[in-house]
Amino acid sequence: MDFENAKAQMRKGVLEFCILSILSKGDAYATDILNKLKESQLIVVEGTLYPLLSRQKNSGLLSYRWEESTQGPPRKYYALTEKGNEVLKELESSWRELIDAVDSILKK
Amino acid sequence: MKKTFSVNLGNRVYNIDEDAYLKLNAYLERIEGHFSDQKEREDIMNDIELRISELFSERLGVNKQVITYTDVDEVIRIMGDPHEISGTEEESRGTGERRSGPRRIYRDPDDRMIGGVCGGLAAYTHIDPVIMRLIFVVLLFMGVGLLAYIILWIVVPEAKTTAQKLEMRGDSVNASNIGNFFRDEFESVKKSFRRRK
To answer: What ipTM describes this predicted complex?
Structure first.
């Protein structure tokens, strides 16, 4: 069995969940999201974020708008859509279920 | 003294050293080769360029106005390897594995002795071109080789474009394969250049 792949998939799923929940606390541009993910050591290289953002945007979970920046290039601010909110709620409940389930097995 | 280029990244202009430019350009192209869906690719490349633009602007100031090779190196380390960016699913696809597509017979202008017929047939059948030529020489002595060769020369078109050359080898025509193709071509030109020196 390919454990590296399983680990990567797990991380990716959790990452998508975390991106949505970061955005649920307020709109953010890629660097904001990156800083939060880096703080919690969920992300090692920044590049991994962009395909996830693009996918979430294309499946209608996110929208974006442009904002000028005083230093640096214009910023692309992402926001959660209605659908994104719903998906986040579903993910939250399945996340708790998963934790409980895994915990109960680990404790035995 | 170094030559610099000016590049537009996320709608801002940066002066960048020639070696740094080449490195960055190759890096971006490698990332691009990992995404086959056009819309997705544009999105991702835009976002990545925007972020690189931001990282560059953090590195510039009054005393530093040019992006150097070291800057590009650092930025690439921050952004990560193209394999990591595209995720594990695409890893096997991105490691230079060529996906096959429809194959067609062409005459190979890059591997020709006379009309490129044997070279083209060799590429199509994946037989060594030398063996293909030997077969034709044998056929020539049997009396049918010359006629067969001339007919093929007339009937089979020459592979002129990159897409046709990929088809001749049975590689599918997509951005990543075209990228690979040019890299190979570039390497072979470089090698033959060195040999001449």
So the answer is: 0.83
Pairing of strands A28-29, A75-80: antiparallel
Tokens of residue B12, six digits: 């801002």
Chain B residues within 8 Å of chain A (Cβ atoms): 9-12, 31, 35, 39-40, 43-44, 47-48, 50-51, 53-54, 57-58, 77-82, 84-88
Q: Which amino acid is at B158?
A: E
Q: Give the relative orientation of helices B162-169 and B117-125 as an angle to the nearest 10 degrees.
A: 60
Output the pTM of the full model.
0.60
* Residue B37 half-sphere exposure toward CB, CA atoms < 13 A: 10
Rounded CA-CA distance B30/B85 in Å is: 11
Give chain B positions within 8 Å (CB) of A28. none
CB atoms within 10 A of CB A61: 23
